Fold each of these.
Amino acid sequence: MWEPINKDLLGGAQETRKSLTYWQDVWRRLRQNIMAMTGLIMIITIALLAVFGPMFSGFTYSEQNTALANIAPNIELTSIGDGDYVFVHNDYKLINATSEGELLGAPEIIEDNKTAKFILYNINGKEVKFDYSIAQKARTKGSKVTETNSDMKTKYDIYVDGQLIDKYDVQSIWNKTYLLGTDNLGRDVWTRVLYGARISLTVGLVASVVNLFIGVLYGGIAGYEGGKVDNIMMRIVDIINSVPLLLIVILLMVVIEPGLQTIILTIGLVYWVGMARLVRGQVLSLKEQEFVLAARALGVSKAKIVIKHLIPNAIGPIVVSMMMSIPSAIFTEAFLSFIGLGVSAPEASWGTLANDALGGIRSYPYQLIVPSVAIALTMFAFNFLGDGLRDALDPRLRK
């Protein structure tokens, strides 16, 4: 008696689009957000560089070469003939290099006359005299020729086998040996930034895990139980939130040594507070819904109601808040390391890199710019993704 219906007779009743689950719809809307996808790509790129980048850099974060200290990412090479090139350092010394921008190290010194202000080098059989007495004479006469003067060429002369060469005939090229330059101890800034990314992402991961397991459960229990239990649990949250973060770090430093473990412990103590309040508010509004009453009527335990019913229904605000807490934790770690309460030398953190660069900020600004840009890009990426998730997880914005 039953026959298959003729689909031609359905007309406008045909399915207009494929049915999507909630998370499939979230991913569809997230992909349409250009800024959110840009942030996601940036986060994945930073994570991959942090994990695998140091393996291919050729240097370690603590490897020092003081002969090549404070060299910028972009260098100017001066030809001394026969395919030999030198880089004139701001510290009044020559560094041997190739035409492609690869640094070969300090050449052999024949004589270093600090009285007459010249250094005599032997570079591939050529006698190269680096005369920096001009800078000394200008300084004696009261001229404003200083270490920060951008026109370094006015401070020296170079003689090759007694012949004065044209010091203005230079080629600007990218530093092939140290892509982002070196710091004041000759350590590779690029490698140290990558190691700093490891620390920052580790701190961000810890913040998200703490928020997920402590903040969500704590807030869920407080909101569902209500009454005196809720009042006591929230007063504990108020007490923790009233203590300044810096004071907690200082107190922990009295007990344990400063370092990454101190920062992780600090985040574990205080970063779940905001999430607990958010989840409590969500649970207070959800626990009066009919599906919770039905679960109670079926005899479902309180723990299962909180974990399997209430928290999944508040997952949107939870994911957004967790995503927004990561850049906050990264900035907190950078700030604590910057003021000397974070990771200690020779470990590399974006905060410690910025602190180390302060002494030469006028002469070598790239040392401060690099970690600052890394912090800014990471925080922008997480904020872009967080904003996109906030829109994508809101079912009211479904189109």
Amino acid sequence: MKKFFLPAAAALIVLISGGYFVQKKMEQPGPLSKEAYVVIPKGASSRTVAFKLDESGIIDNPLLLRLAMRLNGTDKLMKAGEYRFEPGISLRGVIQKMVAGEVFFRKLTLPEGLTTRQMLEIINNEPMLSGEITETAAEGDLLPETYSFSRGERRDDVIRRAKAAMSQVRKEAWNKKNGNVPLKTPQEMIVLASIIEKETGVPEERGLVASVFVNRLKKGMKLQTDPTVIYALTKGEKELGRALLKKDLDVDSPFNTYKYYGLPPTPICNPGRASIEAAVNPEISDYLYFVASGDGGHNFAKSLNEHNSNVAQWRKLRKRK
């Protein structure tokens, strides 16, 4: 009995010591000196994962990682995706991150006021996306926003999400439309919102700019807004690259709001949520005109005489510069 007890006790001591050693190694800071990114493929084995992590310098004991995952049953629970690992992350931290599926999502920003062509160029130039663009999008179809995506996600998927986001914002804004605003369809709302977006970069002004265009529409006045003329000249395919000239105002295009009454046939860019909301709920004012103030904003006027005075003031400021 004593002869059997001694080897069993020794084995128990070895087992406990080994468990303590493994536990200690699992908690120790790892070798990673700066953050690293690793993509775990779908269906990857623990051996493949351990190799990738070792190759990236995140761990230095791939065998121990595989053993630990096998013992605690997590080798089949890893989630596929791209992971960001922090410097010094322990073996336990590595396992917990992959089992919890703490996938790293990248971000792509589509700024307000860009044409659809410009937005598609941003999406197409994002190196972490995959696939050619086959999804179609008209002017005003894409919501300016910052979108999260996983490495390797298809470009078409991002476009579909931007279209779905715009569709949702369009619906919500139209349902809150002020009954006195002379817009007949959600599309007209986006057209007006796109003009508002291009006319001012000052958030506090959107409501007033919207009120000017709404007031002019109510009175049957031409909108006479420069951004629509620029769109008529460029068709949204490029930047004009120069100041708008007086002769440009004579271009024969349905987008030329100096020549034709009402709204242009389509949006001239992709407006953001704030401009869309301003289009259907503008501030209440008697303003019919506005011109740049020289400080980034605009001076608003109720009469043509007052407007002409503001224009003269703006021209003086331009000459000084």
Amino acid sequence: MEQSKISAMMDGKTLTKENINKMYEMVQNASDAEEKKNVMKHSVFFVGQLPLKENHLVDLEKTERIINTTVPLKEVQDVMKLLLDGLTTQTLLLQKEDGSYEVNTKYEKSIIKVRKIARAYQLEREKELEESMPKAKKMYQMGTKYYHSGEFKEAAACFMNAVELAEHRMAYYSLAMMYMDGKGVDPSLEEALFYARNAIVRGAVIAEPLEREIISKL
């Protein structure tokens, strides 16, 4: 599929481990003014995807959740550090005495533009998945039937298919519960948290209490 203008702008700039590592290395290796300017333009995209609280403060808990949707739990803090250190080095973020991070309003106009691009990218991605959603819904419904009949391995397989087909948020939620309880899969709180956070990021508010329960058990 030909890359759209929006996806081309986001290429290499989404909040994944690989992209964050690359951004951090670019920050550390930029030597002359032109290189630093280009790295700054690249890095603004990362700030534009950060969830914020009031007063331009970065919501670190929600940021960690987003990172955990692509990065194993044991690596999340390291990746978070690279992200925050890289952006702070460029003064895109300002670290406060209490350990919180504030978006530098000096770059507010650029960040607002990037937030619009990031949102358009998200909508574009959702549209790409729409074609597979009917199949994913059927797999989710089949998984639910298997689950309620006690056929947990079959249920887990169906939910996995729904996730792979169209990132079905309730399938993510169901897998989170199954990994927490060890039904149909080997029990793993880390895997449970991964799936719960994927569900939440995709709009499944129902998974938020489950996320808290899993964290309390870790």
